[in-house]
Amino acid sequence: GAGAAALMDVSDGLLRDAGRIARASGVVLGLRAADVPLAAWAAELTTSCRGTGLGAAQARGWVLTGGEDHALLGCFPPRAALPAGFEVVGVVREAGSAGPLVLLDGEVPTGAGGGWDHFAG
User: Fold this and answer.
1) pLDDT digits (tens, 9 = 90+) for 25-49
2) For the residues of 7-63, what is the DSSP string, one character each?
3) Can you tell me whether residue 64 is helix, strand or coil?
4) How many Cβ atoms are within 10 Å of 33's Cβ, its own excluded?
5) What is the pLDDT at residue 75?
6) Strand pairing category for 27-31 and 102-104
7) What is each CA distance from 83 to 2, 6, 52, 117, in whole angstroms?
8) Rounded Cα–Cα distance for residues 11 and 57 (Å)
């Protein structure tokens, strides 16, 4: 196999579930918005929203924080041959002293607290 060190579904939203993996693993996940499939999904949603008044920012928000996706997020060793259907959406980095667990293009993403939290009041 590809030797995934961590793997979970993203049904509660990509940013929220990436944060869960990062916290449990003691790492920082650096996501890149331009990587496939994130950019492709946002472009597809933007096209679907034409004429509704919703634009690219809303579509990107849905990609990052929307839930009920039937997909897996995994952390694999560098240069691993990824299983069929997996695509690179970022990198795993060592966690610094304190700081964000998930970055998008090197910054704390807007909507980082989005997604579904089963334990929220």
Assistant:
1) 889 999 988 776 778 878 888 888 7
2) EEE-TT-HHHHHHHHHHHHTEEEEE-TTSTTHHHHHHHHHHHTTTTT--HHHHHHHH
3) helix
4) 15
5) 93
6) parallel
7) 7, 14, 37, 29
8) 21
Residues 66/16, Cβ–Cβ less than 8 Å: no
From 18-32, 57-71, 103-117, the region with the lowest mean pLDDT: 103-117
User: What are the Cα distances from residue 39, in Å, to 3, 59, 100?
Assistant: 26, 10, 22
Helices and strands (H and E) in the chain: how many: 3, 5
Q: Are strands 90-94 and 27-31 parallel, antiparallel or unpaired?
A: antiparallel
Do 91 and 18 contact (CB within 8 A), yes or no? no
Amino acid letter, residue 18: A
DSSP 74: E
**Residue 119 tokens, joined:** 């334990």
First to last CA, the chain: 40
